[in-house]
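Possible race condition, two jobs.
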Amino acid sequence: MTSTVPALGTRTAEGSALQAVLLDMDGTLVDTEGFWWDVETEVFASLGHTLDDSWRHVVVGGPMTRSAGFLIEATGADITLAELSVLLNDGFEQRIGRDLPLMPGAARLLAELSAHEIPTALVSASHRRIIDRVLKTLGPQHFALTVAGDEVPRTKPHPDPYLAAAAGLGVDPARCAVVEDTATGVAAAEAAGCHVVAVPSVAPITPAARRTVVASLEEVDLTFLRGLMTQMR
């Protein structure tokens, strides 16, 4: 876990219950969920195995230990989890080096949060080496804190990453808005006690208590997030 600027504590606009915004990365801010599946497919093809497309919904949004472990078991590939993790990270890093598209509305939302000095954290199940590469495109100046999947004892769907982000920012998880694209990430945020905005990427997500589902980040702005917190208090 690294801090790119000093933690901003609980500074918010007057009258707002919102203390911080915690954002997922893959599939939420950057259009990369498909990249991971492409890399997984290519790596297993090189090992002599074909991935079943139905498995994509199983591995999306999860930590690499879970997704890679599932694929090893499902295919019977002769490779260790550590070896596969290296191959997948290498392949993904090469892929985003060629192209790294942002999700619609991502750049505008990050700029708005920065302009209003809203404490913002990037919270991802991806490893630190991947986050640091993606930050070059997203802009590290937009984040007071970044939390990687290989820096917490348990990553998503456990609450640890979001609890770590809230603690690092010095804010109450119950007054944080989390933006996520997968059921795994939503489960982690809700287990941490945060309010969740779900923007489904690969698999659908249903609305629930303390959870609002939108079609795109283009529907999400600071007014929306503050209003959401007020409605759910």
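Job #2 (started ~2 s after job #1):
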Amino acid sequence: MRLLLCDDHAVVRAGLRALLASTEGIEVVGEAGSGEEALAMATRLRPDVVLMDLQLGEGMDGVTATRRLVRGDPPAPRVLVLTMFDTDADITRAIEAGATGYLLKAERPEELFAAIRNAASGRTALSAPVADRVLARMRSPRPGLSERERDILRQLARGLGNREIARALFISEATVKTHLGRIYGKLGVETRAGAVAVATERRLLP
């Protein structure tokens, strides 16, 4: 199978290429250092699987690149995320963008090889810690956002700070902070940017 690597660290790409060179049936056909480069190379090289990091420095991130890859002209490649991050928000965004699997960089080589083969066949591949988090969320789904929380999210998406949000909605800054804490908990994020990103992915914003 044909594999395209996408990671913004050249040393990581070199290590992966060397590791995969010892594996029969997997051919690394290219290396991309950015999301934009991955899209261009995938169009030209037609890989079966793209091994995608989520954090790609400046420019397009791995989630956006994943979404565009899987929605591109057929035959679209499968995208297998390989990252250091296992937060609920990262996992959710990647899967909703169309990733076939989600692996952590701490995995053993044998697990990586098996995940690549599974991804090429269209089978889901998840690291054990990631699978545990997904199952936990399914068993205990987070409650939906209230209308006031949606109002605050909309203001966040506009780039407003707490004081500006309070003025716009005629509430106190303390109330804004309380709502933000609830929003973060429901969306599984820890930052304002994360909240906006997840809300956008789930189409919670107009």
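The chain has a mean pLDDT of 88.
Logs attached separately.
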